[in-house]
Amino acid sequence: MLVLAVAAFSVAWWLGLYLAGRDPADAAMRRAGLGLVSYAVALALAPFDGSVVEAFGYVFAGLPALIWAGVLLALLPDESAWRAPAERWWRFVVLPLGVAELVVAAVVGGRWEPLTAVLVLAPLAGALVLLVRSRSVALGLPHGVVVLATLLFALGAVAVLVPLGWLPLGVVLAAVGVDLVVLGVVVAVTNALEAGEALGADLRRSAVGALLAAVVFGGQVGLVSLASGSGDGLRALAFGVVGAAIAVVTLASVVQAAVDRLAFAGTPALRSSRAELRDASDALPRRSSRHELDDLDDEAFARLVRDALRHYGDLGKLVSSPLLALPAVSARLASSGRGEQPLDRAAELKALLLESIERLRPRDADFGTSEEWRYFNALYFPYVAGIRPYRRQPDLSGLDETSRRAFDWLRRYVPERTLYNWQNAAARVVAEDLRARTG
């Protein structure tokens, strides 16, 4: 029984960490990963007895329903009028009140449980309605699967939040876990399709590494349990060892970056070079060899350009961009006599993007705030100059006078959502320029 419990925990724990780490900037991926991690903790607590442990298990088992409402909101189209207000409502009202309700139900129990199920699942139902309405014109296969799996997940969540007694808790947890895994994979597929990346090779590499780590380290605990029995201490050790091993393997790049910050604290250039190579290595399995740029419509091509601009300052992450297949990139490499290595192609793509951004700059001035400067300012200063105007403690070291003026203007007079809209519009202009220049 312990083996099955650890196996179920391992799958949810690994997939949650993988989703959260694959694209941390994507809210849907980050939240889907967090929901799976929360559910994995609930699975790890299930084999243990005690009122305190059961209360924590109840809270962690109910959290994925709250978090998944946020995932559905993150899947809404950017142009949806409901997305921004629904996001604020979920973040500042639904999530804190839902967690408080779960805690009260876990402590009090009884009549609180049906009320908790209603309050926790109501936001999920509302988010699902918004997603269906916003995608009603073209509800693709991934989003259709999301709707179906969400309905099944909601039914399972009711059984978790209001235990009926006629189904063993282990069966209910397993059924809900399967729904969450399906939902997580669909979110990953959607993210990969929108980014023009491959998913299979990267997912397979991560899964094999996690499996080997779980078998090697968990197997040793299993041998000890066969010899001495499986008490609570040994069960806790099994979940802890397997969880730590999977986390170190799945988040290997994050762990290596943390080690580099400690080991190479006095050599930032070395840390930067190692990070760039590490990002390039991680990005290679995500490169899609089936992406035909000529077959993409203008909207899909502009989305790829937007993603490339977002990673402008990181050659390692540019390696996975389908735009590396642009004929102009190959032509520039051939004319310069450089090799065909992925980092070389990423460097040429970066140069192409910079040329297109510079074409947006009005003539005879270094900086301006009039309407004709809007698109250039929205792309050049956040991506090329690297300023972050909306951070609470921004780092202004290394910025020249022009970048400092741009930082002050963006921070004072341009709301974050307005800048986001300008960047989307400017990315479409850059995409048109790239297509015109590359034929």
Termini separation: 61 Å
Shape: globular
Order of helices and strands: HHHHHHHHHHHHHHHHHH
Query: Approximately how much beta-strand content do the residues carry?
Result: under 5%
Q: Describe the biggest sheet?
A: none
Specify Rg, calculated over alpha carbons.
Answer: 24 Å
- Determine the mean pLDDT: 86
Tally of alpha and pi helices = 18
Helical residue percent band: over 70%
Number of strands: 0
Helix-strand layout with pairing:
Elements: H1 2-22, H2 27-45, H3 51-74, H4 83-108, H5 112-134, H6 141-161, H7 169-195, H8 200-228, H9 232-250, H10 252-263, H11 268-283, H12 298-310, H13 315-318, H14 327-336, H15 342-358, H16 374-384, H17 401-413, H18 416-438
Helix pairs in contact: 1-2, 1-7, 1-8, 1-9, 2-3, 2-7, 3-4, 3-5, 3-6, 4-5, 5-6, 6-7, 8-9, 10-11, 12-18, 14-15, 16-18
Textual characterization of the structure:
With 439 residues, this protein is mainly alpha-helical. The protein folds into two domains: 2-250, no CATH class; 287-438, no CATH class. The protein is built from 18 helices and no strands. The longest helix is centred in the middle third of the chain and has 29 residues, at 200-228. It is globular. 37% of the residues are buried. The model has no long low-confidence stretch (mean pLDDT 86).
